[in-house]
Amino acid sequence: MQTVQPIKDREKIEAIQKILRAFMLRNELLSVLGINTGLRISDILALKVSDVLTKAGVVDRLDLREKKTKRSESLP
């Protein structure tokens, strides 16, 4: 199985976010949310506006339970 190493260089992260911003603000926002929360992309993409905003249109808090992925192979 291949592993992915995190990008730790702040300048590289900022460059990636600049590229994402150039295409669509949504992509940059998803990136920032993922970096700052550590959530899996599948959990982030499942979010709805109602999960984040109150009826008054204010960001209150994000109440989310992370979904674990199932692995078909057994761990050593």
What does this entry look like structurally?
The chain is mainly α. The chain has a domain at 10-50. The chain is built from four helices and no strands. α1 packs antiparallel against α2 (25-37). The longest helix has 14 residues, at 10-23. The model has no long low-confidence stretch (mean pLDDT 79).
Structure at a glance:
With 76 residues, this protein is mainly α. Helices cover 47% and strands 0% of the residues.
Number of strands: 0
* Residue windows where pLDDT falls under 50 for at least 5 positions: none
Mean pLDDT: 79
Structural class: mainly alpha
N-to-C SSE string, H for helix and E for strand: HHHH
**Structure annotation, total helices:** 4
What radius of gyration results from the CA coordinates? 15 Å
- The share of residues in extended strands comes to under 5%
Looking at the structure, what is the overall shape?
globular
Largest sheet descriptor: none
Question: Helicity range of the residues?
Answer: 40-55%
How far from one another are the termini? 13 Å
